[in-house]
Design brief:
five-stranded mixed beta sheet, alpha/beta, 20% strand, homodimer
Chain lengths: 319, 319
Amino acid sequence: MNVEKNRVIGIDIGGTGTKIGVVDARGKILARDESIVTNAYSTFEEFINAMCGVIERLIKITDSKEKVRGIGVGAPDSNFYTGNIEHAFNLPWKDVLPLARMLSERTGIPVRVTNDANAAAIGEMTYGTAKGMKNFIVITLGTGVGSGIVINGELVYGCDGFAGELGHVTMVRGEDGRLCGCGRKGCLEAYCSATGVARTAKEFLAKTNTPSLLRDLETITSRDVYDAALKGDKIALEVFEFTGRILGEAIADFIAISSPEAIILFGGLSRAGNLLLDPLQRSLDKNVLHTFKGKTKIILSQLPDSDAAILGASALAWE
Amino acid sequence: MNVEKNRVIGIDIGGTGTKIGVVDARGKILARDESIVTNAYSTFEEFINAMCGVIERLIKITDSKEKVRGIGVGAPDSNFYTGNIEHAFNLPWKDVLPLARMLSERTGIPVRVTNDANAAAIGEMTYGTAKGMKNFIVITLGTGVGSGIVINGELVYGCDGFAGELGHVTMVRGEDGRLCGCGRKGCLEAYCSATGVARTAKEFLAKTNTPSLLRDLETITSRDVYDAALKGDKIALEVFEFTGRILGEAIADFIAISSPEAIILFGGLSRAGNLLLDPLQRSLDKNVLHTFKGKTKIILSQLPDSDAAILGASALAWE
């Protein structure tokens, strides 16, 4: 008798923790585990063993293995085509790690792998606000800036599996551009990530004597800037104005290229809501090519924070 | 008896002339006509009549109508989804022109319409240097800068049919940016079109006293700059260096977004060959994100100049 394969497993591998969940076709997480500390394993093989243990346990809790259609994994610097993690900065194991092959050999379940921003885009398309959309971009605003681009209903992987590095288009050219983690200057990520927001705050504080709640802090995070802005702090509000302006300029360029139906903002910084959206929309309206004016919606992701990473990864396994 | 439909018709509607050709499956033009002067017709209907007359004649010369699979048209400001030309700047008739509908009603042959840059991309994929490629971008360097983007083997039209405006990404932000024909400032097109090259030459001449062959000319075209550069003219060589640098910076961003296998340069300015390619490649190598270094080939279109527009348009009709 054929059992209907109506479950998928989503795994989100992060630099600190790894989350695993069993998900049904409507995006309900039936069982989850967040106990794996990624950097506690000295070899990749031990890490795979730990994941397999958790997967086995979650499958037992929820039902039989026969119902599981596949495993989707979101992992940094991972390649959809090869299923490998390649030279990841934020993981304890270097070189090329054959994630998909090892995991599918051990579990007997098909495995698909992509980076977290692409997983977020597939998650939005499968369970989220992009259901039914054929052309949209998810921009993840976290420690870095990533993106998952969907065109004609398909994710854009490019010729090598690494397309979608919107965080590394150049926004400020020449020597004035901020040094980015990638070694180049002026990247979008250096301005519009959570880290970029904190940097902008420090720059603005250094440039003026304007009183600010942020002056009392020893270290400044984007969360501090957000809290201060909510209290009407002038510098903090200027930081969001600046961040929104640059993101709006970048999005105007992305729209000229792929004319998406929507841009979906995802990740930590997107929780700033209108503090970011208002200046972003003003900047976009000012900078977008006339042909595209008013055509692309800017939307905040509606996937619940705690579930988004597992859901996004799991959505890969339906494909 | 079923006749094999192994012919297509390609039509290139330009601001001055309109070219029509019957093309076989290998990209051979079996018959062609370039007699239609686009702006000689006061109404769009008269223009359609003229095209239908030519089409009928070309079909008679080459064979029977039953063998014609479809008509593909490349036209400015045209929309693949609707088949309309919408508010074209360079055509004598304004408003929305239902090109595909009128032409297919009159000829009884299916008609597909797109802009010339998209037609060029489909042409390269069908008969040209992009045969077998799934991810590439054609950049047309003519009076303006246009592009046809192919991702996962399909042309990118976006949500409204107008995607691919690479000529209008912003390369120089703020007030220093050159005014572009679109009304915005700093667009790629304002620097890397044939017109942009002539503008750069005038700027460079005004800024210095360096002797130059270009100083003797009353008006300067990109062709003049090319001729002078071939003779070793310092200013002219600097103009190509500058143009290549900006185009390389832009292409570095496009690669970060879609990681294409190749960028194919097409149109008037691409005939400058290594004068443009050398500084472009240097700039690209300097600016591209490390992940993508050396992965994307920069290629000059190999389609013969005189045939490219008809071939590109005709390729639409195979789809």
